[in-house]
Design goal:
heterodimer; A: mainly beta; rod-shaped; B: alpha+beta; 5-stranded antiparallel sheet; about 35% helix
Protein backbone atom coordinates (compact mmCIF):
# COMPACT_ATOMS: atom_id res chain seq x y z
CA UNK A 1 0.00 0.00 0.00
CA UNK A 2 1.35 3.41 -0.90
CA UNK A 3 0.25 6.91 -0.12
CA UNK A 4 -0.14 9.57 -2.82
CA UNK A 5 -0.86 13.27 -2.50
CA UNK A 6 -2.65 15.87 -4.60
CA UNK A 7 -1.17 19.35 -4.45
CA UNK A 8 -2.22 22.78 -5.63
CA UNK A 9 0.39 25.54 -5.67
CA UNK A 10 2.70 23.33 -3.59
CA UNK A 11 0.06 22.84 -0.90
CA UNK A 12 -1.20 19.34 -0.19
CA UNK A 13 -4.95 19.25 -0.70
CA UNK A 14 -5.63 15.55 -0.38
CA UNK A 15 -3.85 12.34 0.49
CA UNK A 16 -5.02 8.85 -0.36
CA UNK A 17 -3.66 5.31 -0.38
CA UNK A 18 -3.63 2.82 -3.20
CA UNK A 19 -2.85 -0.87 -3.01
CA UNK A 20 -2.29 -3.61 -5.53
CA UNK A 21 -5.43 -4.18 -7.57
CA UNK A 22 -6.99 -0.79 -6.77
CA UNK A 23 -8.47 1.39 -9.47
CA UNK A 24 -9.29 4.83 -8.07
CA UNK A 25 -11.06 7.65 -9.84
CA UNK A 26 -10.02 11.21 -9.05
CA UNK A 27 -12.66 13.82 -9.66
CA UNK A 28 -15.11 16.39 -8.46
CA UNK A 29 -18.10 14.10 -8.37
CA UNK A 30 -19.39 12.69 -5.11
CA UNK A 31 -18.99 9.17 -6.52
CA UNK A 32 -15.28 9.63 -7.24
CA UNK A 33 -12.94 7.64 -5.02
CA UNK A 34 -10.71 10.65 -4.43
CA UNK A 35 -12.90 13.73 -4.36
CA UNK A 36 -11.38 17.09 -5.24
CA UNK A 37 -13.70 20.02 -4.72
CA UNK A 38 -12.54 22.24 -7.52
CA UNK A 39 -14.57 23.26 -10.51
CA UNK A 40 -11.54 22.91 -12.76
CA UNK A 41 -11.59 19.16 -12.10
CA UNK A 42 -14.14 17.10 -14.01
CA UNK A 43 -16.50 14.84 -12.15
CA UNK A 44 -14.53 11.70 -13.10
CA UNK A 45 -11.33 13.35 -14.19
CA UNK A 46 -8.71 10.58 -14.12
CA UNK A 47 -8.18 7.05 -12.90
CA UNK A 48 -5.05 5.71 -11.22
CA UNK A 49 -4.55 1.94 -11.00
CA UNK A 50 -1.94 -0.36 -9.52
CA UNK A 51 -1.68 -3.63 -11.43
CA UNK A 52 1.15 -6.12 -11.18
CA UNK A 53 3.29 -3.56 -9.36
CA UNK A 54 2.90 -0.95 -12.12
CA UNK A 55 0.89 2.25 -11.91
CA UNK A 56 -1.40 3.21 -14.80
CA UNK A 57 -3.03 6.59 -15.32
CA UNK A 58 -6.08 7.21 -17.50
CA UNK A 59 -7.75 10.46 -18.47
CA UNK A 60 -11.54 10.08 -18.50
CA UNK A 61 -12.32 12.68 -21.20
CA UNK A 62 -11.76 15.48 -18.68
CA UNK A 63 -12.22 19.13 -19.61
CA UNK A 64 -8.80 20.33 -18.48
CA UNK A 65 -6.87 17.17 -19.21
CA UNK A 66 -4.41 14.87 -17.50
CA UNK A 67 -0.70 15.28 -18.19
CA UNK A 68 2.36 13.13 -17.67
CA UNK A 69 5.65 15.01 -17.90
CA UNK A 70 3.91 17.88 -19.65
CA UNK A 71 2.17 15.72 -22.26
CA UNK A 72 -1.59 15.29 -22.29
CA UNK A 73 -2.63 11.68 -22.23
CA UNK A 74 -5.66 10.31 -24.04
CA UNK A 75 -5.51 6.67 -23.00
CA UNK A 76 -4.26 4.54 -20.17
CA UNK A 77 -0.50 4.91 -19.78
CA UNK A 78 1.97 3.32 -17.38
CA UNK A 79 3.60 5.89 -15.11
CA UNK A 80 6.69 5.99 -12.95
CA UNK A 81 6.52 7.33 -9.43
CA UNK A 82 8.86 10.17 -10.24
CA UNK A 83 6.89 11.33 -13.29
CA UNK A 84 5.40 14.82 -13.18
CA UNK A 85 1.65 14.23 -13.18
CA UNK A 86 -0.90 16.97 -13.68
CA UNK A 87 -4.61 16.53 -12.93
CA UNK A 88 -5.99 19.79 -14.26
CA UNK A 89 -4.09 22.39 -12.22
CA UNK A 90 -3.25 19.88 -9.50
CA UNK A 91 -0.08 17.85 -9.17
CA UNK A 92 -0.18 14.19 -8.20
CA UNK A 93 2.79 12.48 -6.61
CA UNK A 94 3.66 9.74 -4.14
CA UNK A 95 4.00 11.10 -0.60
CA UNK A 96 7.56 9.76 -0.45
CA UNK A 97 8.48 12.37 -3.07
CA UNK A 98 7.00 15.32 -1.20
CA UNK A 99 9.50 18.02 -0.36
CA UNK A 100 9.94 19.43 3.13
CA UNK A 101 8.38 22.71 2.00
CA UNK A 102 5.32 20.94 0.62
CA UNK A 103 4.89 19.05 3.90
CA UNK A 104 5.23 22.22 5.96
CA UNK A 105 2.77 24.14 3.81
CA UNK A 106 0.11 21.51 4.07
CA UNK A 107 -3.35 22.22 5.37
CA UNK A 108 -4.58 18.84 4.23
CA UNK A 109 -6.74 16.30 6.00
CA UNK A 110 -6.13 12.68 6.70
CA UNK A 111 -7.31 10.05 4.35
CA UNK A 112 -10.96 9.77 5.34
CA UNK A 113 -12.91 10.16 2.13
CA UNK A 114 -16.10 11.12 3.90
CA UNK A 115 -14.72 14.20 5.65
CA UNK A 116 -16.48 17.28 4.33
CA UNK A 117 -13.97 19.71 5.78
CA UNK A 118 -10.34 19.35 4.93
CA UNK A 119 -7.78 20.89 7.16
CA UNK A 120 -4.73 19.87 8.98
CA UNK A 121 -2.08 17.31 8.20
CA UNK A 122 -0.86 15.87 11.48
CA UNK A 123 2.61 15.40 10.02
CA UNK A 124 2.84 19.07 9.14
CA UNK A 125 1.97 19.87 12.74
CA UNK A 126 5.09 18.11 13.93
CA UNK A 127 7.22 20.49 11.88
CA UNK A 128 5.86 23.92 12.78
CA UNK A 129 7.17 26.85 10.81
CA UNK A 130 9.64 28.34 13.27
CA UNK A 131 8.95 31.88 14.37
CA UNK A 132 11.84 33.93 15.62
CA UNK A 133 9.84 37.00 16.55
CA UNK A 134 10.87 38.41 19.86
CA UNK A 135 9.75 41.39 21.91
CA UNK A 136 12.73 42.72 23.79
CA UNK A 137 13.11 45.42 26.42
CA UNK A 138 15.82 47.76 25.20
CA UNK A 139 15.37 50.56 27.70
CA UNK A 140 13.87 50.84 31.16
CA UNK A 141 12.62 47.80 33.01
CA UNK A 142 9.90 45.26 32.38
CA UNK A 143 9.15 41.69 33.30
CA UNK A 144 9.95 39.57 31.44
CA UNK A 145 12.66 41.40 29.54
CA UNK A 146 12.19 39.19 26.50
CA UNK A 147 9.06 37.53 25.17
CA UNK A 148 9.02 35.04 22.31
CA UNK A 149 6.05 35.65 20.08
CA UNK A 150 5.86 32.20 18.47
CA UNK A 151 2.32 30.83 18.86
CA UNK A 152 1.19 33.97 20.67
CA UNK A 153 -1.71 35.79 19.07
CA UNK A 154 -2.32 38.62 21.49
CA UNK A 155 -0.24 40.09 24.29
CA UNK A 156 -1.09 42.72 26.84
CA UNK A 157 1.47 45.20 28.10
CA UNK A 158 0.98 47.46 31.08
CA UNK A 159 1.31 47.79 34.81
CA UNK A 160 -1.31 45.17 35.67
CA UNK A 161 -0.25 41.82 37.09
CA UNK A 162 -2.22 40.01 34.39
CA UNK A 163 -0.14 41.61 31.63
CA UNK A 164 2.15 39.43 29.55
CA UNK A 165 4.83 42.09 29.93
CA UNK A 166 4.61 44.18 33.08
CA UNK A 167 6.16 47.62 32.87
CA UNK A 168 6.55 50.13 35.61
CA UNK A 169 6.40 53.89 35.62
CA UNK A 170 4.35 56.72 36.98
CA UNK A 171 0.83 56.80 35.58
CA UNK A 172 1.44 53.80 33.37
CA UNK A 173 -1.98 52.21 32.80
CA UNK A 174 -2.93 48.80 34.01
CA UNK A 175 -3.24 47.95 30.32
CA UNK A 176 -1.22 50.31 28.20
CA UNK A 177 -1.28 48.57 24.81
CA UNK A 178 -1.89 45.29 23.03
CA UNK A 179 0.17 43.57 20.38
CA UNK A 180 -1.80 41.25 18.13
CA UNK A 181 -0.65 38.90 15.41
CA UNK A 182 -1.70 40.06 11.97
CA UNK A 183 -0.80 37.65 9.17
CA UNK A 184 2.97 37.35 9.18
CA UNK A 185 3.35 40.55 11.22
CA UNK A 186 1.88 42.29 14.21
CA UNK A 187 -0.23 45.30 15.15
CA UNK A 188 0.01 47.51 18.21
CA UNK A 189 -3.18 48.91 19.71
CA UNK A 190 -2.73 51.66 22.29
CA UNK A 191 -5.24 51.98 25.11
CA UNK A 192 -6.48 55.27 26.54
CA UNK A 193 -4.60 56.47 29.57
CA UNK A 194 -2.45 59.16 31.05
CA UNK A 195 0.64 57.90 29.30
CA UNK A 196 1.20 58.12 25.57
CA UNK A 197 2.42 55.23 23.49
CA UNK A 198 5.14 56.05 20.99
CA UNK A 199 6.10 54.00 17.96
CA UNK A 200 9.57 54.81 16.65
CA UNK A 201 9.31 58.17 18.38
CA UNK A 202 5.87 59.04 16.98
CA UNK A 203 2.79 59.26 19.16
CA UNK A 204 0.15 56.69 18.22
CA UNK A 205 -3.49 56.82 19.18
CA UNK A 206 -4.93 54.02 17.11
CA UNK A 207 -3.97 50.58 15.88
CA UNK A 208 -0.98 50.43 13.56
CA UNK A 209 1.04 47.65 12.02
CA UNK A 210 4.55 47.08 13.28
CA UNK A 211 7.51 45.30 11.81
CA UNK A 212 10.85 43.95 12.96
CA UNK A 213 13.07 46.68 14.29
CA UNK A 214 10.19 48.91 15.42
CA UNK A 215 10.38 50.28 18.95
CA UNK A 216 7.41 50.96 21.20
CA UNK A 217 7.94 53.30 24.13
CA UNK A 218 5.83 54.04 27.18
CA UNK A 219 7.19 56.24 29.95
CA UNK A 220 10.81 55.21 30.35
CA UNK A 221 10.45 51.72 28.92
CA UNK A 222 11.13 50.80 25.31
CA UNK A 223 10.34 47.47 23.68
CA UNK A 224 11.69 46.44 20.31
CA UNK A 225 10.31 43.82 17.96
CA UNK A 226 13.25 41.66 16.92
CA UNK B 1 -1.12 48.75 51.05
CA UNK B 2 -1.79 45.84 48.72
CA UNK B 3 -5.09 45.01 50.44
CA UNK B 4 -6.10 48.64 50.43
CA UNK B 5 -5.48 48.84 46.68
CA UNK B 6 -7.50 45.68 46.15
CA UNK B 7 -10.37 47.14 48.21
CA UNK B 8 -10.23 50.37 46.23
CA UNK B 9 -10.34 48.42 42.97
CA UNK B 10 -13.35 46.45 44.18
CA UNK B 11 -15.15 49.67 45.07
CA UNK B 12 -14.18 51.16 41.71
CA UNK B 13 -15.59 48.13 39.90
CA UNK B 14 -18.83 48.25 41.85
CA UNK B 15 -19.28 51.93 41.02
CA UNK B 16 -18.37 51.29 37.38
CA UNK B 17 -20.87 48.44 37.18
CA UNK B 18 -23.61 50.68 38.60
CA UNK B 19 -23.19 52.94 35.61
CA UNK B 20 -23.11 50.14 33.04
CA UNK B 21 -26.25 49.93 30.91
CA UNK B 22 -28.62 47.24 32.12
CA UNK B 23 -28.03 44.09 30.07
CA UNK B 24 -30.71 43.22 27.53
CA UNK B 25 -32.72 40.17 28.57
CA UNK B 26 -31.81 37.16 26.45
CA UNK B 27 -33.30 33.82 25.56
CA UNK B 28 -31.41 31.18 23.63
CA UNK B 29 -31.67 27.69 22.26
CA UNK B 30 -29.25 25.36 20.51
CA UNK B 31 -29.72 22.22 18.47
CA UNK B 32 -27.19 19.85 17.02
CA UNK B 33 -28.11 17.10 14.57
CA UNK B 34 -26.04 14.36 12.96
CA UNK B 35 -27.58 15.09 9.55
CA UNK B 36 -28.70 12.62 6.91
CA UNK B 37 -25.34 11.15 5.91
CA UNK B 38 -22.87 11.10 8.79
CA UNK B 39 -22.80 8.31 11.32
CA UNK B 40 -21.80 10.49 14.25
CA UNK B 41 -22.09 14.08 15.35
CA UNK B 42 -18.79 15.87 15.87
CA UNK B 43 -20.28 19.31 16.41
CA UNK B 44 -20.60 20.82 19.87
CA UNK B 45 -22.24 23.93 21.22
CA UNK B 46 -22.31 25.65 24.60
CA UNK B 47 -24.46 28.43 25.99
CA UNK B 48 -23.80 30.30 29.22
CA UNK B 49 -26.66 32.80 29.16
CA UNK B 50 -25.91 34.15 32.62
CA UNK B 51 -22.45 35.08 31.34
CA UNK B 52 -23.87 35.94 27.91
CA UNK B 53 -21.31 33.65 26.31
CA UNK B 54 -22.14 31.30 23.42
CA UNK B 55 -20.15 28.93 21.22
CA UNK B 56 -20.50 26.52 18.32
CA UNK B 57 -17.67 24.18 17.31
CA UNK B 58 -17.49 21.86 14.31
CA UNK B 59 -15.09 19.00 14.96
CA UNK B 60 -13.04 17.17 12.35
CA UNK B 61 -10.72 14.21 12.28
CA UNK B 62 -11.04 10.47 11.80
CA UNK B 63 -12.22 7.96 14.42
CA UNK B 64 -14.64 10.45 15.98
CA UNK B 65 -11.70 12.52 17.18
CA UNK B 66 -13.52 15.62 15.99
CA UNK B 67 -16.01 15.15 18.79
CA UNK B 68 -13.17 15.17 21.32
CA UNK B 69 -11.74 18.35 19.80
CA UNK B 70 -15.02 20.25 19.71
CA UNK B 71 -16.14 19.24 23.18
CA UNK B 72 -12.74 19.90 24.74
CA UNK B 73 -12.68 23.31 23.09
CA UNK B 74 -16.05 24.54 24.31
CA UNK B 75 -15.35 23.13 27.77
CA UNK B 76 -11.95 24.73 28.24
CA UNK B 77 -13.12 28.11 26.99
CA UNK B 78 -16.29 27.91 29.05
CA UNK B 79 -14.17 27.19 32.12
CA UNK B 80 -11.60 29.86 31.32
CA UNK B 81 -13.96 32.75 30.58
CA UNK B 82 -15.44 32.73 34.03
CA UNK B 83 -17.84 35.30 35.41
CA UNK B 84 -14.96 36.77 37.41
CA UNK B 85 -12.84 37.31 34.32
CA UNK B 86 -15.71 38.69 32.26
CA UNK B 87 -16.91 41.02 35.04
CA UNK B 88 -13.41 42.42 35.24
CA UNK B 89 -13.36 43.49 31.61
CA UNK B 90 -16.93 44.59 31.15
CA UNK B 91 -17.17 47.65 28.94
CA UNK B 92 -13.51 47.40 27.90
CA UNK B 93 -13.52 46.49 24.23
CA UNK B 94 -9.79 45.92 23.77
CA UNK B 95 -9.56 43.84 26.93
CA UNK B 96 -12.48 41.72 25.74
CA UNK B 97 -10.80 41.19 22.38
CA UNK B 98 -7.60 40.15 24.10
CA UNK B 99 -9.42 37.79 26.48
CA UNK B 100 -11.33 36.10 23.66
CA UNK B 101 -8.23 35.65 21.51
CA UNK B 102 -6.30 34.28 24.47
CA UNK B 103 -9.07 31.80 25.21
CA UNK B 104 -8.78 30.50 21.64
CA UNK B 105 -5.01 30.18 22.07
CA UNK B 106 -5.62 28.20 25.25
CA UNK B 107 -8.07 25.87 23.52
CA UNK B 108 -5.65 25.44 20.65
CA UNK B 109 -2.80 24.44 22.96
CA UNK B 110 -5.04 21.94 24.70
CA UNK B 111 -6.31 20.28 21.53
CA UNK B 112 -2.82 20.11 20.02
CA UNK B 113 -1.56 18.48 23.23
CA UNK B 114 -4.49 16.04 23.31
CA UNK B 115 -3.92 15.09 19.68
CA UNK B 116 -0.46 13.83 20.57
CA UNK B 117 -1.78 11.56 23.29
CA UNK B 118 -3.46 8.97 21.09
CA UNK B 119 -2.79 7.79 17.55
CA UNK B 120 -6.49 8.00 16.67
CA UNK B 121 -6.58 11.66 17.79
CA UNK B 122 -3.76 12.77 15.50
CA UNK B 123 -4.90 15.58 13.24
CA UNK B 124 -8.09 16.31 15.16
CA UNK B 125 -9.39 19.83 15.44
CA UNK B 126 -12.42 22.02 15.08
CA UNK B 127 -13.68 25.30 13.76
CA UNK B 128 -15.12 27.58 16.41
CA UNK B 129 -17.31 30.65 16.62
CA UNK B 130 -17.85 32.44 19.94
CA UNK B 131 -20.22 35.28 20.73
CA UNK B 132 -20.08 37.37 23.86
CA UNK B 133 -22.63 40.06 24.63
CA UNK B 134 -21.39 42.93 26.70
CA UNK B 135 -24.14 45.49 27.16
CA UNK B 136 -25.09 46.77 23.74
CA UNK B 137 -22.06 45.32 22.00
CA UNK B 138 -21.72 41.90 20.44
CA UNK B 139 -18.17 40.57 20.43
CA UNK B 140 -17.42 37.70 18.08
CA UNK B 141 -14.27 35.65 17.75
CA UNK B 142 -13.82 32.75 15.36
CA UNK B 143 -11.54 30.44 13.40
CA UNK B 144 -12.60 28.42 10.39
CA UNK B 145 -15.97 28.48 8.70
CA UNK B 146 -18.39 28.33 11.59
CA UNK B 147 -20.43 31.53 11.25
CA UNK B 148 -22.18 34.24 13.20
CA UNK B 149 -25.16 36.05 11.70
CA UNK B 150 -27.10 38.94 13.20
CA UNK B 151 -30.62 39.86 12.16
CA UNK B 152 -31.47 43.45 12.98
CA UNK B 153 -34.59 45.18 11.75
CA UNK B 154 -35.41 42.10 9.68
CA UNK B 155 -32.12 42.26 7.74
CA UNK B 156 -29.48 39.54 8.10
CA UNK B 157 -25.78 40.26 8.17
CA UNK B 158 -22.92 37.78 8.31
CA UNK B 159 -20.46 38.98 10.94
CA UNK B 160 -17.70 36.42 10.37
CA UNK B 161 -15.63 35.74 7.25
CA UNK B 162 -14.81 32.14 6.39
CA UNK B 163 -11.21 31.11 6.84
CA UNK B 164 -11.16 28.81 3.85
CA UNK B 165 -8.83 28.44 0.94
CA UNK B 166 -11.72 28.97 -1.46
CA UNK B 167 -10.88 32.62 -0.90
CA UNK B 168 -7.15 32.14 -0.73
CA UNK B 169 -6.52 29.99 -3.79
CA UNK B 170 -7.17 31.02 -7.37
CA UNK B 171 -9.74 28.47 -8.38
CA UNK B 172 -10.45 28.36 -12.07
CA UNK B 173 -14.02 28.04 -13.12
CA UNK B 174 -14.73 25.46 -15.77
CA UNK B 175 -17.58 25.77 -18.23
CA UNK B 176 -19.97 23.34 -16.60
CA UNK B 177 -20.07 24.89 -13.14
CA UNK B 178 -20.32 28.20 -11.38
CA UNK B 179 -19.10 28.91 -7.88
CA UNK B 180 -22.57 30.09 -6.86
CA UNK B 181 -24.16 26.72 -7.54
CA UNK B 182 -25.21 25.35 -4.17
CA UNK B 183 -24.34 21.74 -3.45
CA UNK B 184 -22.42 19.83 -0.79
CA UNK B 185 -18.90 21.21 -0.89
CA UNK B 186 -15.61 20.25 0.63
CA UNK B 187 -13.92 23.09 2.42
CA UNK B 188 -10.25 23.60 3.01
CA UNK B 189 -10.17 25.63 6.18
CA UNK B 190 -7.01 27.56 6.90
CA UNK B 191 -7.45 28.43 10.56
CA UNK B 192 -8.65 25.86 13.05
CA UNK B 193 -8.32 24.88 16.67
CA UNK B 194 -5.82 22.04 16.62
CA UNK B 195 -3.14 23.58 14.43
CA UNK B 196 -0.84 26.57 15.11
CA UNK B 197 -2.76 29.63 13.93
CA UNK B 198 -1.23 31.16 10.79
CA UNK B 199 -3.05 34.36 11.85
CA UNK B 200 -4.71 35.34 15.10
CA UNK B 201 -8.33 34.26 15.61
CA UNK B 202 -10.52 36.83 13.95
CA UNK B 203 -12.31 39.30 16.16
CA UNK B 204 -15.31 41.41 15.21
CA UNK B 205 -17.73 43.55 17.15
CA UNK B 206 -20.98 45.26 16.33
CA UNK B 207 -23.86 46.98 18.11
CA UNK B 208 -26.60 44.80 19.50
CA UNK B 209 -29.98 46.27 20.39
CA UNK B 210 -33.37 45.21 21.66
CA UNK B 211 -35.06 42.95 19.13
CA UNK B 212 -31.87 41.80 17.43
CA UNK B 213 -31.27 38.09 16.90
CA UNK B 214 -28.04 36.13 16.63
CA UNK B 215 -27.35 32.80 14.98
CA UNK B 216 -24.15 30.84 15.52
CA UNK B 217 -23.89 27.83 13.22
CA UNK B 218 -21.62 25.21 11.72
CA UNK B 219 -21.06 24.96 7.98
CA UNK B 220 -23.37 21.95 7.90
CA UNK B 221 -26.22 24.39 8.48
CA UNK B 222 -25.30 27.51 6.53
CA UNK B 223 -24.08 25.63 3.48
CA UNK B 224 -27.52 24.05 3.05
CA UNK B 225 -29.64 27.18 3.30
CA UNK B 226 -29.37 30.47 1.48
CA UNK B 227 -29.27 33.75 3.36
CA UNK B 228 -32.81 34.63 2.40
CA UNK B 229 -34.08 31.48 4.12
CA UNK B 230 -31.93 32.11 7.18
CA UNK B 231 -33.21 35.67 7.37
CA UNK B 232 -36.81 34.60 7.00
CA UNK B 233 -36.64 31.90 9.67
CA UNK B 234 -34.76 34.11 12.09
CA UNK B 235 -37.17 36.99 11.58
CA UNK B 236 -40.53 35.22 11.78
CA UNK B 237 -39.81 32.58 14.44
CA UNK B 238 -41.40 33.31 17.77
CA UNK B 239 -38.69 31.63 19.81
CA UNK B 240 -35.08 30.50 19.51
CA UNK B 241 -36.32 26.90 19.93
CA UNK B 242 -38.53 26.99 16.85
CA UNK B 243 -35.74 28.82 14.99
CA UNK B 244 -33.14 26.09 15.47
CA UNK B 245 -35.70 23.33 14.92
CA UNK B 246 -36.76 24.86 11.61
CA UNK B 247 -33.19 25.48 10.52
CA UNK B 248 -32.09 21.92 11.23
CA UNK B 249 -35.21 20.50 9.57
CA UNK B 250 -34.61 22.52 6.43
CA UNK B 251 -30.90 21.70 6.32
CA UNK B 252 -31.75 18.01 6.53
CA UNK B 253 -34.41 18.40 3.87
CA UNK B 254 -31.74 19.90 1.63
CA UNK B 255 -29.64 16.77 1.99
CA UNK B 256 -27.94 17.14 5.35
CA UNK B 257 -24.57 15.73 4.28
CA UNK B 258 -22.80 17.09 7.32
CA UNK B 259 -23.52 17.55 11.02
CA UNK B 260 -25.85 20.50 11.57
CA UNK B 261 -25.65 22.84 14.55
CA UNK B 262 -27.36 26.13 15.26
CA UNK B 263 -27.50 28.28 18.38
CA UNK B 264 -30.01 31.13 18.31
CA UNK B 265 -29.99 34.02 20.75
CA UNK B 266 -32.89 36.46 20.93
CA UNK B 267 -32.98 39.71 22.84
Amino acid sequence: MEEWALLLNNRIIKRFTIKEGDSLTIGRGQDADVIVDNTAISRQHSTIELKGGTYYLTDNYSLNGTKVNGQKIDSSVPINKNDVIGIGKFTLKPSEFLTTEEEAESFCSSIDGMDQTIFVDSRAKKKPVPSQDLLKVVDGSAQPSTLELANIDSIKVGKGASCDIVISGLFVAKTQFFITRNGNGFKVTPCPGWRTVFLNGDKIQEEVSIKKGDTIRVAGTSLRLD
Amino acid sequence: MGKRNADLMTIFRLIRNLFQPKPLPLVCAGLSDTGMVRATNEDAFAAFPERRLFMVADGMGGHNAGEIASMATVKVIGDHLSSAILDNIRGLGQEIRHALIKSFTLANELVIALADEKEEWHGMGCTLVLAYLDGATLHVCHVGDARCYVVSGGIIRQITTDHTSLREMNFEISDDRTLNERQPTRHVVTRVIGYPFPEAPEYNSCPFTQGDRILLCSDGLWSMLDEKTLQQILTISDSPETTVEDLVKQANAAGGPDNITGLAIFS
